[in-house]
Amino acid sequence: MSLIFFPPPIQKINGEIARHAGVDLYVLRLDLMHPWVNGNKWFKLKYNLLEAKEKNFTTLLTFGGAYSNHIYATAAAGNLFGFRTIGVIRGEETLPLNPTLSFALQQGMQLVYLNREMYRQRNTAALQEYLQQRFGEVFIIPEGGSNLNGVRGCTEIVGDAMPTPSYRFDYICVACGTATTLAGIALSLYEGQRAIAFPVLKNGEFLAQEIESLLTNYLASGLPAPSNSPASWELMCDYHFGGYAKVNNELLVFSQQFKEEHGIPLDYVYTAKMFYGVMDLLQQGFFYQGDSLLLVHTGGLQGNIGIEKRYLQR
């Protein structure tokens, strides 16, 4: 499956903040792997698609909000690999469709809307049985690809991301929504490396329990694991900017300036918050001189269109 994808390049960041802190900053550009199915979304979908194909499913069904990167990527991946796709969307239909849902429709995805009360039951056996009865034999992928297949894919994100074979980053930094990506990365690191996750949700401390649960369940599942002892990890919960998909002028300006200086576009929902957090921690002296950091760009740039319409055209 991965033959159509480009290996993600690693780009060094030469900026005043990093130089003053005495650290080496690198960015893993998962956003450049594929125009539509990129970032951590591909890694979380990969083994779900393989399982669906091995079990002879022809239809994928998944969940997401109206601006979901996961819906966008699943629609494109289904089209690329010959699956019919169904997207169960949170909330009521709003016309005209936004760019995310318009793209999903163009890729052949059937859009189904659930009110928010029903949507909250998306992971229950009762609702999934109802969906199976309504749509027939479908392979259900949870919202965001957040299952053990998703964790398995994420163990492959950092694998070859070293400037030289003998080089190992001290810290791997990633934005955190469901914690699937962080769990996979923690399972793939070497002794002495650490993972730092930046929750994009308000009060993201609850994700610590989710991470522990994902790690425990994955190690008990018998699925391949690069390490049987997850690397140490921690959450930085002060960079959510008000909560999921919340953006303010400070974040917008930071993202625009970062793009101008380094040529790297950031998505406002995830990577911009993580990059902002890293820069703030550097200025606080959180890292030691000589440390090397790898910042994982998890893609999701398609969502910027809707956010920029809301915030930049006021």
Overview of this protein structure:
- The protein is of the alpha/beta class and 314 residues long.
- It contains 12 helices and 10 strands.
- The protein has helices spanning 16-21, 39-54, 69-81, 99-106, 116-119, 125-135, 148-154, 180-186, 207-221, 249-262, 271-284, 304-311; strands spanning 10-13, 24-29, 59-64, 84-90, 110-114, 139-141, 171-176, 194-199, 232-235, 292-297.
- Strands 1-2-10-7-8-9 form a 6-stranded mixed β-sheet.
- Helix 3 (69-81) links the parallel strand 3 (59-64) and strand 4 (84-90).
- The N and C termini lie far apart (42 Å).
- The model has no long low-confidence stretch (mean pLDDT 93).
Entry summary:
The protein has helices at residues 16-21, 39-54, 69-81, 99-106, 116-119, 125-135, 148-154, 180-186, 207-221, 249-262, 271-284, 304-311; strands at 10-13, 24-29, 59-64, 84-90, 110-114, 139-141, 171-176, 194-199, 232-235, 292-297. With 314 residues, it is of the alpha/beta class.
| Rounded average pLDDT | 93
The largest pleated sheet is described as:
6 strands, mixed
**Looking across the biggest beta sheet, what order are the strands in?**
1-2-10-7-8-9
Radius of gyration computed on alpha carbons: 19 Å
Q: Which regions are unreliable across 5 or more consecutive residues at pLDDT < 50? A: none
Which bin fits the share of residues in helices? 25-40%
**Cα separation of the termini:** 42 Å
N-to-C order of helices and strands: EHEHEHEHEHHEHEHEHEHHEH
**Structural class per helix/strand content?**
alpha/beta
- Total helical elements: 12
Shape: globular
Give me the count of strands: 10
**Portion in beta strands:** 15-25%
